[in-house]
## 1
Amino acid sequence: MNKNGVIAVVVVVAAIILVGLWAMRSGEQSAGGLDCSAPPAVPTGVSYTKAGDVATLRWDPAPAGDHVTTFVIEAGGQPGTNNQGTFVAPGTSTTFQRQAPAGTYYVHMFARNGCGTSPPTQDIVVTLP
């Protein structure tokens, strides 16, 4: 493949990625437009369990009518931060599992749909041995 062919492939791949990111951020679509009327409620019932160096975050299912498309989970070394990672779980999920080094993490999450993002949950402190 010559140089122009490689450039064309790179442009197509970049376009596919950008369209995918746009679709993810814009939320679920229905025939009548966005499948929501407001941002979702704050996730509830957030807790965690641990097994060695694996933490499993759990939360209650989204209330009917919220149309959550994704949950955003942020972990930080201090309350309210995300310097240890930002993760995305599908809107139908009620758990998220992650292996992490020993330490203390402050974890909060948001619910998201095409109409916006909920306020964050309170931080929960996750301590792994």
Note: The chain is about 20% helix and 40% strand.
## 2
Amino acid sequence: MSVKVLFICSGNQCRSPFAQAVLTKMVKNGGGEDIVSESMGTISMGGESASSNAITVAKQMGIDLSGHMARHVTEDALEEFDKIIVMENNHRDAVLRMVPSCESKVSLLGSYVPYPMAGDEIPDPIGMDPMAFRTCFSTIIEAVQLFYKSILEEMEAR
């Protein structure tokens, strides 16, 4: 049985595509082939590339975002995915305004890290320097690793 994961941020140009790429790499290297993921944004117009800082910093961390094209989240997508992972509370709110019935599928990516974060949110580094992207992406890697582990445990328990 597959698990479909949707990562959501604002513009789908930084955090959510990075998280999706990290999870895809983990699945490729560590198993769980039945885990598939995509990313979308709550305010994306669709078709934008990843931000230049996101591409540069991601590449330094072994992730290629150069071919990414942003997509806007849709009601159909929200209904299709098993897990909807958001970066901020306002993303959760936008998702629930669109499809209130998917509340049980929505969680904050930051809630997977073992140390306290401001509301479990992963702040947007867009418009900031590359160090902000490195910090953000390091947090995303840690959170996705723990999220991935939780999915594998869930799949084993089935």
Note: The beta strands are 3-9, 35-41, 83-86, 106-108.
